[in-house]
Amino acid sequence: xxxxxxxxxxxxxGPITRMHLVEWCAAENDYYILHYDERxxxxxxxxxxxxxxxxxxxxxxxxxxxxxxxxRLDSVSIRYVRADSEGIVLTLSAxxxxxxxxxxxxxxxxxxxxxxxxxSPSATGEATIVTPQT
Amino acid sequence: MMRSLxxxxxxxxxxxxxxxxxxxxxxxxxxxxxxxxxxxxxxxxRRRMTGMTIESFARDLETRFGHKFVETIESGRVRxxxxxxxxxxxxxxxxxxxxxxxxxxxxxxxxxRRPHLAQSTGGGGVNAGDTFRFLxxxxxxxRITVTCTVTEIVEKTGKRDxxxxxxxxxxVNQHGTKIAERDNTLMRWATA
Lengths: 134, 192
Description:
A: 134 residues, elongated, B: 192 residues, alpha+beta, Thiol Ester Dehydrase, Chain A
């Protein structure tokens, strides 16, 4: 059985500052220099330190957990299309694209996007969540 | 035939060799960087990108991922993870042992780069993508063994020559239960 899809959920985070990036370095235990050293970012061809892809990914994970609190995350993928520099506001979104009942509960497919300064997403992904039958 | 012969020679001489790639694919299979397959020689000989080679990239990956990581999910780390995402207050109580952790907390395991250590042999690099499949919950206090395998290195030619690697992660808890797997894609390029 197929259900109507829920509306798209969206939230804005930021501006994402250097402090967020350094705090995320500590949280994920990875101090990759690209995310806090301007000289290194310039050497790599970027104008400023970049927001970690994993930070955007983890923010999407929290968005899913908040909007579908009863669901279990079955799988999730993300593709980092473009780099986002520090100082911008991120727009995170999750949109249900499919929903079906199964033996284990209701399975939903979510399309995920992160958008930075440009109109086109800087990251896109997909998640599958399962809500157990009550 | 010639390519195969050269490959066997290179493999015998150095399991890490990957300086020449034709047709731009060098898949690395098995644990760590033990074997190379589908590699051949470029007509121009060993191909190198300025300041970086596939070999040096492979060596970087071996340094970062070429061993098992065994880590305990500590409550303070979970609290810091949530605080960094503004999902909890920095001074919130630490979650109790046995509390399920956010699935993507697994991103924080098997990571070890420090600011004061040399981080690569040169070039630029970014994370290009991630795929997770979750099989069971991870909880505060779990002891997780993470096994990483470099599954592929591919040379991408274009406006900017790049190398793309895929690293596979298996997460197993203290009961021997596989709780998740991850495929992480990394891009690397030479800088001037």
